[in-house]
Design brief:
This protein has 378 residues and is an all-alpha fold. It has helices spanning 3-25, 32-47, 64-80, 83-91, 93-117, 122-129, 137-143, 148-173, 188-191, 195-217, 223-241, 254-268, 280-307, 312-319, 324-333, 338-377. Helix 2 packs parallel to helix 12 (254-268).
């Protein structure tokens, strides 16, 4: 009985935090629900107003809120990896691989600069600049021991800058493009409800649950997100390619709002006043490195568009480290190749989330070993 009041306190915390997401969403920012909820939750966690009854001994709200949000996000990303994405990768594999490698390389260089010229530790610096998105990177960073608050702050600043600068510049360059394509953003089959689609939704949830256990067994970072994403993508691709059946789930857009609220509230609830101590220099360095990253995006997009048949608009949005939803929406509005943008963005999230965390842990191991070696030899 004692747990019930505390559970409802957490529910109340998530609801109030979600109100902040609602207000930011009025700006029509695609990830506004996430950022607004995160900011509201962080403010509540730091100020601890009496009407919220935030427990002082609780390290944020329980992690199952984060896991639920990651599960929804994993299923969403898994459904995006369809046959059209695979065919696009087959046709443009060289350009996509170049984009993936360069984006990872630039993120590592940005993280190296942040680590060398700020007081952050290695893991926090690299995770703060990793181009995996505000939805996934902070949760993974927490699991490997990085400072989640700092990672979230820098990731949010990077997303803001990328969303503000890159779409605005590209919109200015391609402002005369026909933009009627935005009328078809939501597929028709996802707006109607059928019993068969609901069954596929339940099926995908079960597949994501199995993927979580496989990911946990294989020690994937954020197994609810990565395991669910890979398992759903594999099943969906298997159905389309081998048996000729396209699994279409009943997946309303409101589920992504719920996912953003759960993830934002969970991350924001872990903020404390001590996280902001000495961040002035860090934020300045991060701001400058993000501007450098954006400039490199335009340079690389121009090179790729010159060497291939991919337009500068599509290459710029596909290469931009601003998140799947944000860049895809911009591509749709400006009549770019949104499917290509989705393909590159999803593949980058998968690559970053699967490969970089073990690499960062290895670097951390080398750093610890290097520091302890003189002590042992002495």
């Amino acid at each position: 009985m004692k747990e019930n009041p505390r559970f409802f306190q957490f529910v109340w915390f998530v609801i109030v935090s979600g109100v902040g997401g609602f207000f930011i969403s009025l700006t029509h920012l695609p990830i506004g629900w996430m950022i607004g909820t995160l900011l509201a939750a962080a403010l509540l966690a730091i100020l601890r107003p009496k009407f919220m009854h935030v427990p002082h001994t609780q390290n944020g709200i329980p992690k199952y809120w984060l896991y639920m949000g990651q599960c929804i996000l994993g299923i969403e990303l898994g459904q995006k990896v369809n046959t059209s994405v695979l065919s696009i990768f087959k046709e443009n594999w060289s350009a996509i691989i170049i984009m993936l490698l360069l984006s990872i390389l630039f993120s590592l260089l940005s993280g190296l600069v942040l680590w060398k010229y700020s007081k952050l530790d290695m893991l926090t610096s690299f995770f703060a600049t990793a181009p995996g998105g505000l939805s996934s990177i902070p949760g993974i960073a927490e699991e490997v021991g990085a400072n989640t608050g700092v990672v979230s702050i820098i990731q949010a600043m990077r997303v803001f800058l990328v969303i503000i600068i890159i779409p605005v510049v590209i919109s200015f360059l391609f402002g005369h493009s026909e933009i009627h394509a935005s009328n078809n953003v939501v597929p028709a089959e996802l707006t109607t409800f059928e019993v068969e689609q609901l069954a596929v939704t339940i099926f995908f949830v079960c597949i994501a649950w199995i993927g979580y256990h496989i990911g946990k067994f294989l020690k994937f970072p954020a197994p609810w997100l990565i395991g669910g994403m890979i398992s759903v993508a594999a099943v969906k691709s298997f159905g389309s390619v081998l048996i000729g059946y396209d699994f279409v789930a009943w997946w309303p857009q409101s589920l992504m709002i719920v996912s953003q609220i759960f993830i934002g509230a969970s991350i924001g609830s872990r903020f404390t006043k001590t996280m902001f101590v000495g961040l002035h220099r860090t934020l300045i360095i991060s701001f400058l490195s993000t501007l450098g990253l954006i400039v490199s995006v335009f340079i690389c997009a121009y090179i790729v568009s010159s060497l291939t048949e991919i337009s500068f608009l599509t290459a710029g949005l596909a290469f931009a480290p601003g998140g799947i939803a944000e860049m895809t929406t911009t591509a749709l509005v400006l009549n770019g190749d949104a499917t290509f943008v989705v393909a590159v963005q999803v593949l980058r999230v998968v690559t970053v989330c699967v490969t970089l965390p073990p690499f960062f842990r290895f670097l951390k191991y080398l750093e610890v070993k290097k520091k302890s070696h003189p002590h042992l030899s002495a």
